[in-house]
Design a protein that fits this description.
It is a single chain. The chain has 513 residues and is an alpha/beta fold. The protein has a domain at 6-288: Rossmann fold, CATH 3.40.50. Helices cover 35% and strands 16% of the residues. An eleven-stranded mixed beta sheet has the order 3-4-6-8-7-9-10-13-14-15-16, sandwiched between helices. Helix 4 (197-205) links the parallel strand 9 (185-195) and strand 10. It is globular. The model has no long low-confidence stretch (mean pLDDT 94).
Length: 513
C-alpha cells in the first residue's frame, strides 16, 4: 500500500510522493513569482492556495544561457523549463513525523548565471535516507535577474541592489523555518550547504543581517566569502549592460518592458565582452551595496558577525583543471599573456614570485608547467582555496568550531587529465556516482559514504566525526585538514607553503574568473 504524502504548510496543503523509501515534494513555491512589476524587487511571500496542491514535479528554473564551458557528467539544464517565475524549492525527507531531523538546505552553484535545485545528483534522496536528515534544494534568481544593480543608475526607480538572488535564498530559509517541522525537520537545526556560487552565496549569508539567525551551521563547498563586487564595479557593469540595448538609467519603462529572452541575449553579449576584456566567467556576482551587504563579507566574518555558526569548508585540489583544458584562451596562453593576466589581478610585485612558486609546484605535482597550468593553479588559490582557509581561520579565531577538507580524488575521465576537478565531489555527496565522471566501484562507494556521513554528522551536531571517516579534528592552530580520497586521512597543514605565499595578499574582493 502506497504511503500517503500530504503535508499542511502555512500556505496550504501539498501532495508529494513516497519513492524508494523517501518522501519527495517538488516545485513548492517559497515566494511570489518575481514577474512583471516585481522583476528586480525583493521576494515577497507566496499566496495561499485552497485544496491540495500537487508537488510532484520540479518548478521552472531561473532564466539562463548555456554555460560557455561544460565538463563531462556535469548537470545539464538545457532541457528544463525556464521562467522568471522560478522561486521554488524541493524536499526529500525520511518521515512526515515529529522526528526533529537536521535540515540541510542546498544552494546550487553555477557562477551566478546557471544552475537549479533540480540537479540530477539530487535524485533518489540518498543523502536524506542515509543520514536521516531532511534535504531541501532551492532555485534563486540568476544573472541579470538576480545580481544586477539598477538602484543607482535609475535613481531608485528600480530598487535592485544586485543582491536579489541572495534575498531569494533568505526567503527560502524563512519558508523552511516556518514549515519544515511538518516534513519531519527541526527548524532549530538548519544547515546551509552549497557548491561554488552556492558556497560563495553562503559566504555572503554569513555576513548578511537579513540572514542571521535563519540557519545554524554552514558547509561551504568550493566557495567562500570573497566573490563580491564593489558598488562602483556593479554600477559600471549595469551601465554597460543597458548600453547593449541602447538604454540608460533614465529609460526605466523601456527597461522593464524588455522580454526575458532579450535580457538573456544582452547578458550573453555583455558576458562575452567581459570574458574577452577582463577574463571574467560572469559579469554578475553579489554586490557590496552598503545595505543588504553593509560590509565586505570577509571583514564582517572576521569581526565576529557569524560567531557561533559552525563552518565546514573545503575545496577540490584541481578546481580549475577542467576549465583550463576546455577554454581555448587558456590553452593558447603564453608567458606574456600569463604575466598580463596576473598583473590585472594582483599587486605587480607579487606576480613574478607567484609564477616562480607555481612553476615549481606544478612540477612537484607531476605536471607540465605550461602558462595554462600555472595560471590554473593561481586561479584555484585566488578563487577557492585561500579564501576558504581565510573563512575557516576567521571562525576559528572567533572561537567557533571550524573544519577544513581537501578533496584530492581524481576523476577517471580523459585518462585522469581533469584531476580532482571542480564539482567532482557533488555526485558523491548525494550518493549518485557517475561512471564517466567519478568512476564507480567499492572504493568510490566507500568515499561517497564517508562524505555523506561526515556532512550529515556535521548537520546533526556541528562535528563531522563519524564511524566511517573517524575522528575529524577542528582546523585549529595545527591547521588540521581532512584529505578526501580513496584513503581518507587527517593531515596537519597540507600544502602549507602555498598558503604562506598568499598571507599578505588581500583577497577580500575577487571577481569570478
Amino acid at each position: 500500500m502506497e504511503k500517503e504524502a500530504i503535508v499542511s504548510t502555512k500556505y496550504g496543503k501539498l501532495r508529494g510522493a513516497f519513492q524508494d523509501g523517501i518522501y519527495v515534494f517538488k516545485g513548492i513555491p517559497y515566494a511570489a513569482p518575481p514577474v512583471g512589476e516585481m522583476r528586480w524587487h525583493p521576494p515577497q511571500p507566496p499566496e495561499r492556495w485552497h485544496g491540495v496542491r500537487p508537488a510532484l514535479e520540479y518548478g521552472a528554473i531561473a532564466p539562463q544561457n548555456v554555460m560557455p564551458v561544460a565538463a563531462p557528467g556535469m548537470p545539464d539544464y538545457g532541457t528544463q523549463k525556464q521562467s522568471e517565475d522560478c522561486l521554488y524549492l524541493n524536499i526529500w525527507t525520511p518521515g512526515l513525523d515529529d522526528g526533529h531531523r537536521p535540515v540541510m538546505v542546498w544552494i546550487h552553484g553555477g557562477a551566478f548565471i546557471i544552475g537549479a535545485g533540480s540537479e540530477s545528483f539530487l535524485e533518489g534522496g540518498k543523502l536524506a535516507k542515509r543520514g536521516d536528515v531532511v534535504i531541501v534544494s532551492i532555485n534563486y534568481r540568476l544573472g541579470a535577474f538576480g545580481f544586477l544593480n539598477l538602484k543607482e543608475i535609475t535613481g531608485g526607480k528600480i530598487p535592485a541592489t544586485g543582491n536579489e538572488g541572495l534575498l531569494d535564498q533568505v526567503a527560502a530559509l524563512e519558508w523552511v523555518g516556518e514549515n519544515i517541522a511538518a516534513f519531519g525537520g527541526d527548524p532549530d537545526n538548519i544547515t546551509v550547504f552549497g557548491f561554488s556560487a552556492g558556497g560563495m552565496s553562503i559566504g555572503c549569508l554569513l555576513a548578511m543581517p537579513k540572514a542571521l539567525g535563519k540557519f545554524h551551521k554552514a558547509i561551504n563547498r568550493s566557495g567562500a566569502a570573497n566573490i563580491i563586487g564593489s558598488l562602483e564595479s556593479a554600477v559600471r557593469i549595469s551601465e554597460e549592460f543597458l548600453m547593449v540595448f541602447n538604454l540608460t538609467g533614465r529609460d526605466v519603462d523601456a527597461l522593464r518592458k524588455l522580454s526575458t529572452e532579450r535580457l538573456l541575449e544582452g547578458q550573453q553579449v555583455l558576458g562575452d565582452r567581459l570574458r574577452e576584456r577582463e577574463y571574467r566567467v560572469t559579469p554578475f556576482q553579489p554586490v557590496h551595496d552598503g545595505v543588504i551587504l553593509p560590509n565586505l563579507p570577509m571583514e564582517a566574518i572576521r569581526k565576529g558577525v557569524a560567531k557561533g555558526v559552525s563552518v565546514m569548508a573545503g575545496n577540490t585540489l584541481d578546481e580549475m583543471k577542467a576549465f583550463s583544458i576546455m577554454d581555448p584562451a587558456m590553452r593558447s596562453l603564453d608567458e606574456e599573456g600569463l604575466v598580463k593576466r596576473l598583473r590585472n589581478l594582483l599587486p605587480p610585485d607579487k606576480v613574478e614570485p607567484l609564477i616562480r612558486f607555481y612553476r615549481a609546484e606544478v612540477k612537484r605535482r607531476g605536471g607540465e608547467p605550461t602558462p595554462a597550468e600555472i595560471m590554473g593553479g593561481i586561479n584555484v588559490a585566488i578563487m577557492f582555496r585561500i579564501p576558504t582557509i581565510n573563512l575557516v581561520e576567521a571562525q576559528r579565531d572567533n572561537g567557533t568550531p571550524a573544519y577544513n577538507y581537501l578533496f584530492t580524488y581524481k576523476s577517471p575521465a580523459f585518462g585522469g587529465a581533469l584531476g580532482a576537478m571542480h564539482g567532482l565531489d557533488n555526485p558523491l555527496l548525494f550518493g549518485n556516482p557517475v561512471a564517466e565522471l567519478t568512476g564507480v566501484g567499492l572504493e568510490v562507494e566507500a568515499l561517497s559514504q564517508k562524505i555523506q556521513d561526515s556532512c550529515a554528522a556535521f548537520a546533526r551536531s556541528g562535528d563531522p566525526s563519524c564511524p566511517s571517516i573517524g575522528k575529524w579534528l577542528p582546523y585549529g592552530k595545527e591547521r588540521y585538514t581532512m584529505i578526501l580520497d580513496r584513503t581518507c586521512r587527517l593531515e596537519a597543514a597540507p600544502y602549507d607553503e602555498e598558503r604562506r605565499i598568499w598571507e599578505d595578499i588581500d583577497l577580500r574582493i575577487v571577481r569570478p574568473m
